């Protein structure tokens, strides 16, 4: 049995010096959260950010930069493991939508002519609430208590406040969304280490500099820790223009996802985003991401929150499923249907039939360019 790996320190690469077309995003300062006045101010900022951009920054969320850096170090060391070791942790049923564990690169064909495949590796760690098996490489097992503490802090220090603020903005009881996102209840939340291995300049040219096409996430909120390698772009929901997301010191970048859109009848849009080739002064490095995906409890039915006075006044009373007359799915049914679509192997990035596929009766994906 090999000895425990020392994580060492983590050094972020320098930010790009290129003058990119950065998105202007709102920053929520959670240091204001502990007073009624602060909560209501933040709630108004949040709903404005969600309605106008879909992405926003969060700062002062009570998790030290040292703790964040430790998780990046775990991710770095994880992807240094031999491929044959990582492949031991590919989930059974990956093609059917299972996702916890290791998802290898190369499942998508990015350019049909050249045959270039994606170089995205994913490692997902589910909740630590007793509902999931935790079978991990030794590196993860050696640091599992720290990983568990980190994941639980993201829930209590970031997600609970965001769910409270969303409820206030929709004139619902403060605990409305917290009550369907409790950590101890089964849901498909997960922490993710994600690596994008670089392409050559010739490969990027063949790909049209696009690594991951425009898409939406399927849950409630996605939390993305500061990543200096610029590659994330969002499509402004108001003007439909693609903008770069700038890495901000000591912040989380957060986006709204499909479940929140369904629950609000489309009042909050699921944010469209993509990953493109970094600017030329960063194309020589790989890109390591640290993310957390929040989802409502598995048994929650994704119907519009009809009791919200805001949604009633604004006329957002039905989501896609309700408008279609089809049955409204539970979060569990929705999650695995969309994951199965996402994990389809050997699909080409230009496959329009796949990119507009029916996920469940009443909902089709769209092409985002």
Keywords:
369 residues, alpha+beta, Jelly Rolls, 11 helices, 16 strands, 28% helix, DIOX_N
Give the structural class: alpha+beta
Helix content: 25-40%
Radius of gyration: 20 Å
Side-by-side strand order of the widest sheet: 1-2-12-9-14-7-6-3
Count of alpha and pi helical runs: 11
Order of helices and strands: EHEHHEEEEHHEHEEEEEHEEHHHHEE
Number of strands: 16
The overall average pLDDT, rounded, is 95
The number of domains is 1
CATH architecture: Sandwich
Domain Isopenicillin N synthase-like Fe(2+) 2OG dioxygenase: 209-295
Protein name: Clavaminate synthase-like protein
InterPro entries: DIOX_N, IPNS-like_FE2OG_OXY, IPNS-like_sf, Iron_ascorbate_oxido_reductase
Pfam families: 2OG-FeII_Oxy, DIOX_N
Fold topology:
Blueprint: E1 27-29, H1 36-52, E2 55-59, H2 65-78, H3 83-86, E3 101-103, E4 109-111, E5 116-117, E6 120-126, H4 138-142, H5 144-169, E7 190-196, H6 201-206, E8 210-215, E9 221-225, E10 232-235, E11 242-244, E12 251-256, H7 258-263, E13 273-276, E14 287-293, H8 309-314, H9 320-324, H10 331-342, H11 352-355, E15 358-360, E16 363-364
Parallel strand pairs: 1-2
Antiparallel strand pairs: 2-12, 3-6, 4-5, 6-7, 7-14, 8-13, 9-12, 9-14, 10-11, 10-13, 15-16
Condensed summary:
This protein has 369 residues and is of the alpha+beta class.
Description:
With 369 residues, the chain is of the alpha+beta class. 28% of the residues lie in helices and 19% in strands. It is built from eleven helices and 16 strands. The chain has helices at 36-52, 65-78, 83-86, 138-142, 144-169, 201-206, 258-263, 309-314, 320-324, 331-342, 352-355; strands spanning 27-29, 55-59, 101-103, 109-111, 116-117, 120-126, 190-196, 210-215, 221-225, 232-235, 242-244, 251-256, 273-276, 287-293, 358-360, 363-364. It has an eight-stranded mixed beta sheet with strand order 1-2-12-9-14-7-6-3. A hairpin with a 4-residue loop joins strand 4 and strand 5 (116-117). Helix 1 crosses helix 5 (144-169). It is globular. 38% of the residues are buried.
